[in-house]
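Escalation from tier 1.

The customer reports that the assembly of two entities below gives different structure tokens on two consecutive runs. Tier 1 could not reproduce it. I'm attaching the input and our single run for tier 2 to review.
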Amino acid sequence: MKALAVLLALCACNTPDRRPKGNVAGATPKSGGTLHIATKDQISSLDPTLVYEEVSTYIMQPLFATLVTYAPASRDPGALPPLTVVPDLAERWEITADGLTYRFYLRDKLAYEDGGPIVAGDFKYSLERALSRADSPYRGFLVDIVGATEVTEATPDCAGIVAVSARELEIRLIHPSSSFLYILAMKFATPQRGSWAKPRLENGQLRREPLASGPFKLGAPWDEGTKIVLVKNEHYWAAASTYLAAIEMRENIPRDTQFLMFERGELDTAEKLSPPDYVWLKGDKDWERYVRQTAQMVVFGARMDTNQEPFTDPRVRRALNYALDKDHTVKLLNGAAVPSHGMLSPGMLGRDATLGAYPHDPEKARALLMQAGYGTRFGFAPLELTYVTQNDEQAETLAGAMQADLAEVGVTLKIELVSFATLSTMTGSSDRPKFSLTSWVGDYPDPTNFLDVRFHSRAIADETATNDTNYSNPEVDALLDAARGEIDTEKRAVMYRRAERIIFHDAPWIFDYHPLTTEVIQPYVGGYEIHPIWGRDYTHTFLDDGTTSTVPP
Amino acid sequence: MIRLVARRIGWALVVIWFVVTATFLLATRLPSNPAKTMLGPHADAAAIKLVEDEYQLRENVLVQYGTWVKKVATGDLGKSYRSQSPIMQILGERIWPTIQLALAAIFLQLLIGLPLGILAAVRKRRWPDRATTVVTLLAQSAPQFLLGTLVLYVFAYRFGWFPISGYGDGGLDRLWHLVLPAFTLASVGIAYYARAVRSEMVDVLGEDYIRTARAKGLPERTVIGKHALRNALGPLVTLVGLDLGVLLGGAVVVESIFAWPGLGREVLQAVLDVDLPLITGTVLVAAIAIAVANLLVDLLLLWLDPRLRDR
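Tier 1 run:
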């Protein structure tokens, strides 16, 4: 008992100092030091051709460079910053007037981490690997290239990808593509040296032994599931603007633990803060300026199968959009979200900012439901729905809020919880549920990666549908097709805004919200903003903690 | 005796086979398509078919099972759907952290549980006994996620005596990282051991031979340590053996809280990803651990108590 009392007393006395500690980073970058970060997930692989999930992107970004990339993030909370494509390994490129041929000119003396040259043929090899591997998630991104559909594992040569010389790469397309440069900025399009990859593919070690072409390389064998250490790659062409000497990322650290480690100074940043930590930081005047918050190319909502009753009637779908209180959703997410009126995130090309989300209007919802023949009075049929959602805390909370909102307009909602893997399989199969949680994470900042994939009738299929609402509107199809082939950005924007309006009115989803990503950094971390594409991009980050030195001019 | 041992080994094999087969059949019934999980949302039907063919996902469950059994017989447990790593390699990497954690937990259970139990028995119905009852009851009823978070908060975050999480870099650093997860994992065991030892000791201390020993004028320490304790330890052997088996299967909650890279955390990830080869692989290890531990306990008891051999 005495021991317990002593322990409690010690606890009470030992209140840690929770104010920001250490030097405040100046504007001038400093060089050196190790950045300590963590993630709650586990990296699945370091093979850029096969890996397709968020946490591995954190590591793909520093390891692998591409022909073109995005300009670094700038501070613009709440909306996407302009995501400009800039040269990386290619110093310039030419696109023919018909938009069909791309010619890239590589920088002089490009090298991998081992000093070996990066040549045009290495890009051909990696793109053909993505096309020929049955288990590559990226095949679908390259189908616009001439000869891409004929590529198989046995015949990997793609006629449309030509290494003209060691420093010139030509890619020919079947039809113009407004998003092709974005696709080449994805990490699977990084150069890979065949003589490095082939023996490692045979012994299964390519997933652990990457040959870096980016600003960092592996500093030690990857301690899988525990930690990965990257060190600066001096052979990267822009090594002079990489300031950190090393990045150490711990895996599988729960987010609450991450925050405790952050507070004790064991981590330099903490991501995906839990609601109590986030609210505390935002409310603390000392910490507030170290919280980074950025819109991501992500949208959440509820999909309704337009082929199944009662969702065949657009009035029902609109009614549910009016019934859901999106401001309440944002409150439940502690303000870390923006209400949505469609798939496109704030700041994205083609998003109609004047549209605004469906207002919370239960009266209107009830009226629309009655017009469609549903209601709780006057002999109308009562509407009962089953909503399938994910069995995580956030999704459950939001489903509960939706249940209450729908009850207010006389709709009884039954909630069914399943795992993420089960939910994605269910919605992708022919006997998909008619009403379920849906979301979309963009691969690149172009409406083709959102509207074409989820609302074009071409994407309707029995087993592999990405248009899982069976939504089909010829006018939307025509607008999306025309915009896809158009090169003039302003004309495209007009067409997408028109398509967005029609989709908004047809309401195949209950459009709910765009989440904001939050991260807190230590005061001595400089040059860091969350990147909407890469998430965590520490390429230009520096530490100003007294151990680092001023960058030589 | 040899026939008895052979029979026990036979039963252990049957149990392992049954558990793993049941897991395999249940896991294949889960509504999830690994090909889609692997290929992401942009995959076309042709790509999905290629992957499904490679992993035999379109085959009948019994055909899949037959292939799996054939592979297992050659020591090949397949590849993880998620990471594409061979399951044997994953298990090989994960088993050592789990063994360390399990042994450390058993050590703490004995180190703390045993003396507590003896103390409670010797001071029966006095304050040490009552305090032990309260503490063990609390330890038994506190869920591990709560106790784990609590010790992490108090001893790692507030006092900074131990690292908040992780596996450490080997040697003393590893030991230092091991303390909090091992203590959390051991908490329930400590309570069980203390209660089991107490109850056995109380019984034994009432036996005639203890009275004889005391009447002979033996010092109390000898009476307790040599005569009473030895006879009270029988059930503890069973407890330790079974615990070791269970702990070697992985500690899901504790490993997740403390980011300990063992089998338990791998099981959790495998279930969330519906990664069938990894689920069956980890269950296989757990089943073997429990079956082997049971077998060893049986053999040890046979050796300790010759009367059992005739049954």
